[in-house]
Amino acid sequence: MTNLTISLDENLVKQARIKAIQEGTSLSAKVREMLAAYVRQDMPAAPVVIPKLPTGGSGGLQPGIDPCSNRSMFDAMDAAEYKFRA
Fold it and tell me: Which residue range is the domain that position 57 belongs to?
């Protein structure tokens, strides 16, 4: 790890240390987090991929897929993704 010397207002540093302690962390950790977030802003975001669910002839979900069950929906998405890759 690299050490970095920066000049900051003494009151600001005191307040930031107190807040970091209240959050159960350190000021150094918070600065690392903020610097990493700052760097990530320039990176292009990964494209959002919306999985397609298998549908029946009428446009609804295929029989056997329970829209009230996360497991059923995830299984259907996994099966559809596998089918489109093959």
Answer: 49-86
* Domain-located, residue 34: yes
Q: Is residue 67 part of a domain?
A: yes
pTM of the model: 0.47
Over residues 52-61, the pLDDT tens digits come to 666 666 767 7
Counts for the chain of helices (H) and strands (E), in that order = 3, 0
Beta bridge partners of 61: 55
Using the 8-state DSSP alphabet, how is residue 47 labeled? P
Residue 22 maps to a domain: yes
Task: State the total domains in the chain.
Answer: 2
pLDDT in tens, 4-14: 899 999 999 99
3-state helix, strand and coil shares in percent for the chain, rounded to the nearest 5? 50, 0, 50
What does the alpha-carbon distance between residue 76 and residue 65 come to, in Å, rounded to a whole number? 7
